[in-house]
Structures are given as structure tokens and as C-alpha cells.
Specification:
Strand content of chain A: 15-25%
Order of helices and strands of chain B: HHHHHHHEEEHHHHEHHHHH
Strand order of the largest sheet of chain A: 6-7-8-3-9-10
Order of helices and strands of chain A: EEEHEEHEHHHHEHEHEEHH
Distance between the termini of chain A: 49 Å
Number of strands of chain B: 4
Radius of gyration of chain B: 23 Å
Structural class of chain A: alpha/beta
Largest sheet of chain A: 6 strands, mixed
Oligomer: heterodimer
Radius of gyration of chain A: 19 Å
Number of helices of chain B: 16
Shape of chain A: globular
Structural class of chain B: mainly alpha
Distance between the termini of chain B: 29 Å
Largest interface: A-B, 24 and 24 residues
């Protein structure tokens, strides 16, 4: 069923959200095309996290429209679980993996599968599941760490594991919040590679402060400011924009 | 992660445990029944009953470890399920007394005659049949746990709040069972048992048979626990224990998982209580006392929470110490010893006996494995 005629996988139009009079989002509009990767930048308080909250159903918009999947689903009418089931996965800023479990078991728990009590009690390992886990271990470069407990991983590896867990859930759209915060330069570059690889068959939105990382991604950039879009374009266009320089990048 | 049954259920320490348990179940009756009392190797009937009691405690500890060690549910009222199972068995044993009671009433147990009750209450019906009693031994604690858990877990009651309401539950049951009009013998409870399945409960052979039955039940409970914790279900439980909201966010219905494992654990505690009662010869409301439940939690902490064999070992070690301390001039100091033990284990041995041993072994294996890895460190760093 088509609620809205659009080719976009994610369509936001005129979204406003206010908390106690403070306008976190102010007439925010943008569209993401299927298969795209988009970087979202902006100063603190620009509304980046609130935008993610609206998309994942954590926050309801006061005004505006938000549609998923070529206009087939009105996200403002669904709750978090339903939206997750539609195939929107989110990685939060702080990595939260299961510390006592091995890397492999973390991925196993995240794999798209029946989540019921009976299904997990009677669960049996299958080669299809094992192949999928191996594939994700390859993508996230955690193959060597597969039998280590997640608690012993470095911060960067935990971030990758969490991205891997997100992949295991097989979402159509990934929202990734500050994936390189606290990473070394080498890890940051590897994460950029990783996201590019994921982007081959999935749509990705990355929120990030690290401009070197955003430049490495080499994708269309949206700069938010005070809850609306300030500038949009390639990284060179956006960083040359006078307003962006003034409010975000600094002179 | 081999094909289902054996390799998954029996890791090295589980196999060792089951072999030791089987040996115990064979050696003790042999030394009691076949070795003459004059021999130094003879095991007295008193000890047989004592060991039988320990085995039942071990089963209770196992049931607590399943929910506390793996799902992070700290029940401080598990003694209630143990006692309910015990009462169900006690009711069967009371009905077996028949005309041999003081008042020789073929239907009514002595305490009912004494209270001038004209007839048997409806909830005592059927307990003259062992099969029905056996069903109730599992069903009564299971049903209580299901209803209790249904409300508690759906309302997302966790941590210390859950512990407190489990305490309140067992305390409320204790007060109820103390009342004469509750119909379970008031503060005297149920006692003066004559026979079980036609065998005299006091007979040496019956006592040995009960010990063997308890060992068998413990082995079965252990294997059920192993099957649960080594399945994917068990991995979800550990995930719930360590990061409940994250697990929920992954799409697992945490309350359904908790409810299942809590009910299963209560059923096991019920079986433990049922085997306990014929071996000690009495069940009374003091079994519901909150202190008993807390003591059982200490057994698990001492043995090692989250290690099934540790729960069994902890029950044995602490109860042996209890028997040792409470039978001599040290008796008045037992509670100090128990409290001190709990503090010492929490501070010095937070993983418990078996947990510390396993940790030490894992570290040693890691160190040995680290040598070849160190050699190709440049590749690993990549």
C-alpha cells in the first residue's frame, strides 16, 4: 500500500519536535534514496539524535511526515519494535555488547531468527547460520577474535562487533550514531572501509563529528543546525559553505 | 557445539560430577547395608539419612543457581517452593498412616480429628494416590511460581525489589501454614509418617533407597539444567543477566524467558522438598522461614554462582560445616560462622569455589596459548 508517492527509502518532511518549548527539530526535511550512504554532521544540539529518535519511533514528531520504504510505512504511527521489524537498525553511541559472551555468541544472539522461548530451547546450529556468522566476522574484521569474550575487546572492536550485530539483524536501513568516537586514526579509517562495504547492499545513515572520517566516507553530507538542514552536498561544497564554517567548523 | 545430546550436555566437569554422584549412590548403601557395623568402613544409618538430606539441599541449590547464576534472578524465597513440594509429599505420607494413627481414623489425619474436623477438606482429596501426589509435588510450586512470575516479570520488577517480594511471599506462606484452619497441621506440621509406597520409612533399606532416589533426581535435574544453559536459550539468559534492556532491544521477550526458567526452577525445588520430607520425617511451617531461603543462596554463592556443579558442592560444604558446628559445643556460634562465611566468600572469593577454579584453569590455558600467538603478533595486529 502506497501512503506517499516517493522513490525514497526514507522521507522526512517538515518534522518538528519540541521539548518544553525548546525546538529540537524545526521543519526538518530530507530524503534518502535506496542504496545511498549519507553522513549527517552538525554542532551539539543540532538535533541529530532527536532525528534518529523520530525515525526509530522513540520520539513522536509534533508535526511533519516520516515515511519508510518508498512511502509504504508511516513511521510516526509505529512503535520501536514494529519499526525494528520493518528493517531499520540502530547503533547507539555507546557500544553495548554482551560482555560475558564470545564474539561469535553475540552475533548468534543478534541473527535474524525466531526469538521465542521454544525456538531457542530447541535451537540447533546450522551451517547456514554459521556461514552468515563467518561472513559478518569477515566484514567486521573480527575473525581472529571470534572465541574471545566481548568484554575483553578493545573499544574499537566493540564498536565493530556492535555494527556486526546490527548487520546480523539484516536491516534495510542502518542508522549509525558516532561510530568512530574514541577510536584511533587507524581504526577510524578501517571503520570507514567497513561502512563502505556494508553500503554495497544496504542504505546507511551515519551521524559523525569527525570530519576526517566523513571525508574518508566520500558521500553526500547533510549539515544540521538548530533542528533544520543548513547545507547539503559533497563534503567540499558543505565545508566551503560560509554558514557551516560559521556555526560548526569554525574559522 | 556438537550434535545434540551427549557432547553438548557433558563437558568434562559435568561428566566427572555425574560419575562421582553415581559412585556415591552405590558406595554409601553398600557400606551401610553390606559392611558389618563392627567394621571401620561401616556407614551408619544416621549418616545415610544425613547424606540424603544434603542431596536434597543440593537440588535446591541447583534450582537457585539456574535462575540466579544464569538469569540474574535473585530469589530469596525459593525455600517456599521446596516447602510446598515437601507438603505435597507430607500429605501423601499422612494419608498412608490410615488407622495406625493415634485416633485410628482411616481417612482423617490425627490433627484433623484433634481439631474436630468432620471430614477431609477438598484439597486433601487424591493425596492417598502416589501418582496424584507426585503430580502435585511439581504442579503446586510450578503454578505458584508461574503466577508470581507472571505478575513480577511483566511489571519488570528486577534486582533487589524482586528479592524483597520473594521474601515476602515465603514469609506470607509461613504465616498461613502456621494457622490451624489452613488445614496443614498448623505449627506442628505433618509428621509420624509410617510408610511410603508400602515400605516402612524408618527401615534401613528404605532410607538407602531414598538416598539413591535423591541422587537420581539430582542427576536428572542437573542434566535438565545443562540442557537449558547450553542451549541458545541459555545464552539469551546470560544476555538478560548482563544487559537486560539490550536483550529486549534485540527483540527477545525477556519476561517470557524469565517466567519459563523461574517456573522450571520452582518445580525442581519442589521435587527436592518432596524427597527431603520422608528422609527427615517431618515438614512444618518453619521450612518457609525466610532464613532458610537465604541460607540456600549462600550455598550457591560459596560453591560458585553460574556453575551448576558449584551449587551442589556449595550445598554439601556449607551443610557439612553446619552439621559439624551445630552438633558440638560450637553450636551457639554457627550463625556467626555462616555470616562470616558469606562475607568472606563475597570479599575474597566472589566467583565461589568452582568459579574460581574454572577461572584459574582458563587463565592457565590462556597463558599457554599466548606463547604461539605472541610469535605472530605482527600479523594479528594487522
Amino acid at each position: 500500500m502506497q501512503l506517499k508517492t516517493t522513490s525514497a527509502i526514507l522521507y522526512l518532511d517538515g518534522i518538528s519536535v519540541s521539548f518544553d518549548g525548546f525546538k529540537a527539530l524545526n521543519e526538518l526535511s530530507f530524503v534518502i534514496e535506496p542504496g545511498e550512504m549519507r553522513a549527517i554532521i552538525g554542532p551539539n544540539g543540532a538535533g541529530k539524535t532527536t532525528m534518529m529518535d523520530v525515525i526509530t519511533g522513540k520520539t513522536r514528531p509534533d508535526n511533519g511526515e516520516v515515511y519508510f520504504g518508498q512511502g509504504a510505512y508511516d513511521l510516526s504511527k509505529l512503535d520501536e519494535t514494529q519499526i525494528a521489524e520493518l528493517g531499520i537498525g540502530r547503533k547507539f553511541q555507546k557500544p553495548t555488547v554482551f560482555d560475558m559472551h564470545t564474539v561469535e555468541d553475540n552475533l548468534l544472539l543478534a541473527l535474524k531468527n525466531d526469538r521465542g522461548v521454544r525456538a531457542t530451547l530447541l535451537w540447533e546450529n546450522s551451517s547456514a547460520q554459521q556461514d552468515r556468522i563467518n561472513q559478518i566476522l569477515d566484514i567486521t574484521r573480527l575473525g581472529n577474535a571470534r572465541s574471545r569474550v566481548a568484554g575483553s575487546l578493545s573499544h574499537g572492536q566493540k564498536q565493530w562487533l556492535e555494527i556486526g550485530m546490527l548487520l546480523a539483524q539484516e536491516p534495510k536501513l542502518l542508522l549509525v550514531d558516532e561510530p568512530v568516537a574514541g577510536m584511533t586514526d587507524a581504526e577510524t579509517m578501517q571503520t570507514a572501509e567497513l561502512l563502505k562495504e556494508i553500503n554495497r547492499d544496504k542504505t546507511v545513515i551515519v551521524v559523525e563529528h569527525d570530519m576526517a572520517f566523513v571525508r574518508e566516507l566520500d558521500v553526500k553530507v547533510t549539515c544540521l543546525h538548530e533542528g533544520s538542514v543548513l547545507a547539503e552536498g559533497t563534503i567540499d561544497q558543505v565545508s566551503a559553505n560560509d554558514r557551516v564554517v560559521e556555526v560548526y567548523l569554525g574559522r | 557445539m556438537g550434535p545434540f545430546p551427549l557432547t553438548r550436555l557433558l563437558d568434562r566437569s559435568s561428566a566427572v560430577f555425574l560419575i562421582l554422584l553415581a559412585a556415591f549412590a552405590m558406595v554409601i548403601p553398600t557400606l551401610n547395608l553390606l559392611v558389618p557395623a563392627s567394621s571401620g568402613l561401616h556407614v551408619s544409618t544416621y549418616l545415610v539419612a544425613l547424606f540424603g538430606k544434603y542431596i536434597c539441599y543440593a537440588m535446591l541449590a541447583l534450582s537457585i543457581d539456574l535462575i540466579w547464576g544464569y538469569a540474574g534472578i535473585l530469589s530469596l524465597g525459593h525455600g517456599a517452593f521446596f516447602a510446598l513440594g515437601g507438603y505435597a509429599m507430607g500429605m501423601y505420607l499422612m494419608r498412608q498412616i490410615g488407622t495406625r494413627g493415634v485416633y485410628a481414623n482411616p481417612i482423617l489425619p490425627d490433627f484433623m480429628v484433634f481439631l474436630n474436623w468432620p471430614e477431609l477438606p477438598i484439597y486433601w482429596y487424591g493425596f492417598n494416590h502416589f501418582a496424584y501426589a507426585a503430580l502435585m509435588i511439581v504442579l503446586a510450586p510450578g503454578l505458584l511460581a508461574f503466577v508470581f512470575g507472571w505478575f513480577a516479570f511483566r511489571s519488570r520488577v528486577t534486582g533487589v525489589y524482586l528479592s524483597i517480594i520473594t521474601q515476602a511471599m515465603t514469609f506470607a506462606l509461613m504465616l498461613g501454614f502456621f494457622r490451624n484452619n489452613f488445614g496443614f497441621g498448623g505449627n506442628n506440621g505433618l509428621t509420624d509418617f509410617k510408610d511410603i509406597l508400602g515400605f516402612n520409612v524408618q527401615a534401613e533399606t528404605t532410607r538407602n533407597a531414598l538416598l539413591v532416589a535423591s541422587c537420581l533426581a539430582l542427576a536428572i535435574c542437573f542434566l535438565i539444567c545443562r540442557a537449558v544453559v547450553t542451549s541458545k536459550f541459555g545464552k539469551v539468559l546470560v544476555a538478560i543477566r548482563d544487559a537486560e534492556s539490550r536483550t529486549r532491544f534485540l527483540g527477545y521477550r525477556v519476561e517470557a524467558y524469565k517466567l519459563f526458567v523461574f517456573t522450571l526452577s520452582a518445580c525442581m525445588a519442589g521435587v527436592a522438598g518432596a524427597l527431603y520430607v520422608p528422609q527427615v520425617g517431618i515438614i512444618n511451617p518453619s521450612e518457609f522461614a525466610p532464613g532458610n531461603s537465604i541460607e540456600a543462596v549462600i550455598w550457591v554463592a560459596v560453591g560458585g554462582r553460574g556453575t551448576l556443579t558449584g551449587a551442589v558442592l556449595g550445598a554439601f560444604v556449607v551443610n557439612y560445616a553446619k552439621t559439624f558446628f551445630t552438633t558440638g559445643w560450637l553450636a551457639p556460634y554457627w550463625l556467626f560462622v555462616l555470616g562470616g562465611l558469606f562475607i568472606a566468600v563475597t570479599l575474597l572469593l566472589p566467583r565461589g569455589i568452582v568459579g574460581t577454579y574454572e577461572w584459574w584453569r582458563a587463565r592457565r590455558a590462556e597463558k599457554q596459548a599466548a606463547i604461539p600467538i605472541a610469535a605472530d603478533a605482527p600479523h594479528a595486529a594487522e
